Each structure stands twice: as C-alpha cells, then as structure tokens.
Amino acid sequence: MRHGVNAAHQISLRWSVLILLFSVAVATGLLTRSSFPFVLSVPILFYALSGQTEAKRSFRAEMTADRQRISAGDEVAVRVTIHTDGPVPFLQVRQTLPEQVEEVSGDFEYSGSHDGNEPVVLAFVVRCPRGIHVIAAPLITSGNSALLQHSSVQVPQQLRIHAVPRVHPPRSVAVNPPAVNLFPGIIASRRAGSGTQFFDLRAYRPGDSLRRVSRKSIHGRSGSAGLIVTEFEEERAVDVSIILDVRRMVYVSNGMSLFEAACEGAAALTERFIADGNRVSLLLYGGPLQWAPPGYGKRRKEMILNELAEARLREHGAFRSLGQIPLHLLRSGTQLVLVSPLETDDAPDLCTLHARGFRVLVLRPDRIEASADELPDDRHTRLARRIVRLEHHGLNADLERNGILVLNWPQGQSLAECFALERARFTAWGRHR
Fold first, then answer.
1. Of 20, 80, 147, 199, which is most buried, counting CB atoms within 10 Å of its CB?
2. Dihedral angle sign, alpha carbons of residues 4, 5, 10, 16
3. pLDDT digits (tens, 9 = 90+) for 118-151
4. 298 vs 102, 188, 295, 376, CA distance in Å?
5. HSE on the CB side for 179, CA within 13 Å?
6. How far apart are alpha carbons 258 and 305 in whole angstroms?
7. Low-confidence ranges of the chain (pLDDT < 70)
8. Taking the model in full, what pTM does it have?
9. What is the spatial distance between Cα 38 and Cα 21, in angstroms, rounded to a whole number?
10. 123: Cβ–Cβ under 8 A, 6 or more apart, which residues?
C-alpha cells in the first residue's frame, strides 16, 4: 500500500508540473502576442498525451527458498523470479529485507531494459536469526526512460522463513515427578512391572515367568514352595511442563543474548524430554498467555519450537512475579522446568509451587558471565561481580533446601556439558520424590 501511494503521488506531481508549464507557455504567448510560446507548448502537450497512450505492463513474482525451516543463524538461498507480459523500456527490481535478516551474498537489484522474453531473476543468500521472517516481493519500477515516465508497484507475494532455536540436547535428564502416566517411558515409577532395574523380591505365584525366579531359591528345593521371584521397576512416561521466563525485568543486563540462550535451553530440553517419550507442554510466562498444550511426538516438538521461535521479551503488570503461573493448566504432580535468570523475590513463589505438589527444576542462565564483556575489568567491577555471585549462591542454596534443584548455566558452555558436570548432584536429586 505504501508503494502504491508513492506511485500515485509521483503521477499527480508530474501532471501538476505539466499543467503548470503548459499554462505558463500559453499565458506568455497571449500576453506577448508571440507565436514562439505557443510553439513551446506543443512538446509539453505531446508529452502529456504520450503518457496516456503508454502501455501498462503487468508483473508476476515467484519466490522460493532452499529451506523454509532452519536453525537460528543458518543461511538460506532465496530465488526471486519476475515475469512480465511484454517488453519494458526501463525496468528496476529492488529487493528489500526485514530488519533482522542479514545479507550474505547475491543480487538484490536489477536495473535496465527488458525484452520480455526471459524472466528477471534475483538470487541471493541471507542469514536469519531466531524468529519468523516474512520476506516481501521486490519493488518493481517500470516505465519509459526516454519520456521520464515511471510507476512503482509491489506484487502481493511473500516468503516465510521459520528460524527455530538451535538445539543441542543433553544426553539425559533424570527427572522423577510424583505422578507418572500410563504410557511406557524411561522414568522409574516406583511400581513393580516390566523394566530393567531391580525393584523387589516376593514369593512365587502360579503363572509367574520362570525366567524371573531367583536361581538361589531353586537350589535344594522341590516344587514351588519357597521360590523367590525378582521384580523389576516399571518405567513410565511423565508430564513435563517447560516454563520460559519472558519477563523483561529479569533480562536487564545483556538481555537479548541471555534471552537467546534461554530460548535455546528450552528448545534443547524439549528435544530431550520428547525423545524420552514424555508428554511435554510449553508456557511463555511474563506477557499475554502463550501456551502449547501437553503432547507427544514430533508434531508436538515442532509446535513448541515454533512457539519458541516467536518468543519475545514482554512486560505485563499482572505477571511481574512467578506467583501468577496459571496452575489450572497443569496436572498435579507435573515436572516443572523453569528456564529463567531468576530474581531474588522469586524464591517464595517457587517454594509455593513445590509445596503444592509440583516437582521444580530451574535452569538458570548465568547473567553475570553474560555481562562480563560489557563492563570494565577494574576493582569495582570485580567487587560488584563477587557480591552478585554470593547473592546467586545464597538464592540457589535456599531453593535446594526446599527441594528445588537449580542448575547454573554459564554462557559459553553447552547445555550438554552443563548437565554432564552436574550429573551426580542431578541424579541424587532425581532419586527423591
């Protein structure tokens, strides 16, 4: 619409100049009673009439990309083809990009005459950050360069590219919420059944598989009296709800890079939990409600990754604290995984969630390390960093005393390395309900 208004403005301005020149020439001829001004008005009249008889060309655009779903930071090859219904004395095609999309290489503009036999092709490569990017069709300017007549139009065509967070999932995440589902998984259910881990011993009952009878109880006995059967712990799937904190106030220092890391962490945990057969949901907390209901499989993973691609920092007066998490959306006994840098005031709200029967795990991107490059390396900065670090350790210790595990995630370290280094502490926490 904007380009159409500009074209109309150019046409009206051209006609205003022509009318003014023609009027001046005619008035000068009448006042001076000379034929020379009337002769000068003839080319002006001819120029105006020739513009009315100029053939209008129609344009059609085709936009393709080698991939329309990528990981954040990947490069995409785009091809734009412009078709015309005839020759154009002057044709200019200019491709514009969204603000965050970066030009890498290729042709973004064409200018010159066009015979109409072959289409005009723009081929270029762009790099897209996390998000959903809409690349509009190029601006097409056509006309007769000799007569200085041009018109601009933008074909109603666009290309959508989904750049989801880059995923580097950890090898395993040992969660152990109070409630399990009926479907099989890899989480110990504290119930006897089919599994691989030892659970208990009991007396033999008719119908039990002989493979489960303990060999030590067979020796020196006749019949089924005194036989002992080995029971294994059944493994089930669980409900996991990933909560990504999008409150702007917790990302004050080096906010965007820290928030990008939080999105990547949520995506990696989604990949891991769904690959383990669990039912996963996503909640973006801190703005208008954005909720992906619980589900299994690749389709649910793609839905969550698309939600993470569109995640933005928000401000909402009703969600300044974690005490307003909509618990009615969550099943009791769900494993909650909060991805957030956390504020000191968030500790009571997290303890309340744990007291209500939710198992809470916090993945905390380290904003101290994230802001290290922005601050001068002097004595005052080191002292301030040490004070903030002590506050973080104190908050983490308070939460762990209440049964909430906090994993500090330094920037520059992959999530897989973070979980590997904390495996012992994480496994010990996962054994207790």
1. 80
2. positive
3. 889 999 999 999 999 999 989 888 876 544 566 7
4. 30, 23, 9, 45
5. 14
6. 18
7. 1-18, 22, 36-42, 44-56, 144-150, 177-202, 204, 207-226, 229-237, 253-255, 369-376, 426-433
8. 0.74
9. 11
10. 77, 78, 79, 80, 106, 107
